Structure formats: structure tokens, C-alpha cells
Amino acid sequence: MGILHRQNKPRLRCTMLYYQVLNFAMIVSSALMIWKGLIVITGSESPIVVVLSGSMEPAFHRGDLLFLTNFHDDPIRAGEIVVFKVEGRDIPIVHRVIKVHEKENGNIKFLTKGDNNEVDDRGLYKEGQNWLEKKDVVGRARGFLPYVGMVTIIMNDYPKFKYALLAVMGAYVLLKRES
């Protein structure tokens, strides 16, 4: 009976490892499906963003997590907070619409500014661009959680912290497997 038990132990470990890998794959795919679902529901290519600077204080602070929507039939109005991308910059910007310019053909252009900034954003736009258009908008702020995004900022600002956190999580998974 003891010999049979010893022979099944490696098979049992392999089966447990297989289930852990499968469980991890299910968690990752579930997170991906939730993210893609949020994109469809909100109409925004990035339904959740983190405020990275203090340019929108006191409305939003560095590290606030913003929830966005981007429904194209909704007109953009002065006073709204939008997240936009500018050609030549990788990171979207969170600022308030201060002026809207509507043409007779229905084309809308607008100007933005950070609440905590002295001047409008024309200096941030690509060279020669004075107004943003709807195509530049990633989304509009619809809600936020204060400071929840600080974890993201800390992990980007301090890569050693990110690797230490990953190491701790990896060790936890390995130790959890053994018990």
C-alpha cells in the first residue's frame, strides 16, 4: 500500500499544478472580459484612468481613479471634464472644457484647461492645433474614487517596489501550492 501511495504523489502534484495554472488563466481571462465589457458599455477605449498630476486640483487629485463614458451622440459642453489624447503624446490628459466652438455644419471644436493651471491647453496640443475635436476625446469623467490609483503611480515611479510586490505575490502562490 505504501508503494502505491508514493507512486501517486508526483501525479497528484502535477494535477495540482495543472489546476493552479488553469485557475490563473481563468482569472486573467475573466479580468480581460470584464475590461472589454466595460469598453463596450461605456463607449470609451479606456473606461478607467488614473489622474497623474495636480493640474485638476481641487476637483481631482493625483491618484484619483476616474470612471469614463464616451457616447458620441452626447454633445460636449463647457464645464465638462474630459480625458483626451494629443498626437505625439502617449498619456491622455484630464482637463475641463472651457470653450466650445460650434460650426453651422455641426462640427464641434473645444478648448480645455486644467483647473489648477494658469493658461489654457493650447501649449499641450500638437503644433498648429488650437482646438480639440470629438475624435481626440477618450472619455468624460462620470465618477471617481479618491486616491485609489496611487498604487499605480507608486508602481510606475518606483519600479523596485513593483518588482518586490510581484515577488511577494509569486512567493505567496508558491507557498500556497505547497500547503
UniProtKB/TrEMBL annotation:
Q: Does the keyword Secreted apply?
A: no
Classify the protein's membrane topology as the record does. Answer: Single-pass type II membrane protein
> What EC number(s) does this enzyme carry?
3.4.21.89
- State where the protein is found: Endoplasmic reticulum membrane
The keyword Protein transport is assigned to this record: no
Q: What assembly does the database describe for this protein? A: Component of the signal peptidase complex paralog C (SPC-C) composed of a catalytic subunit SEC11C and three accessory subunits SPCS1, SPCS2 and SPCS3. Within the complex, interacts with SPCS2 and SPCS3. The complex induces a local thinning of the ER membrane which is used to measure the length of the signal peptide (SP) h-region of protein substrates. This ensures the selectivity of the complex towards h-regions shorter than 18-20 amino acids.
Please describe what this protein does: Catalytic component of the signal peptidase complex (SPC) which catalyzes the cleavage of N-terminal signal sequences from nascent proteins as they are translocated into the lumen of the endoplasmic reticulum. Specifically cleaves N-terminal signal peptides that contain a hydrophobic alpha-helix (h-region) shorter than 18-20 amino acids.
Per the record, the similarity remark reads: Belongs to the peptidase S26B family.
Q: What is this protein called?
A: Signal peptidase complex catalytic subunit SEC11
Organism source for this protein?
A: Falco tinnunculus (Common kestrel)
Q: Tell me the classification of the organism that encodes this protein.
A: Eukaryota, Metazoa, Chordata, Craniata, Vertebrata
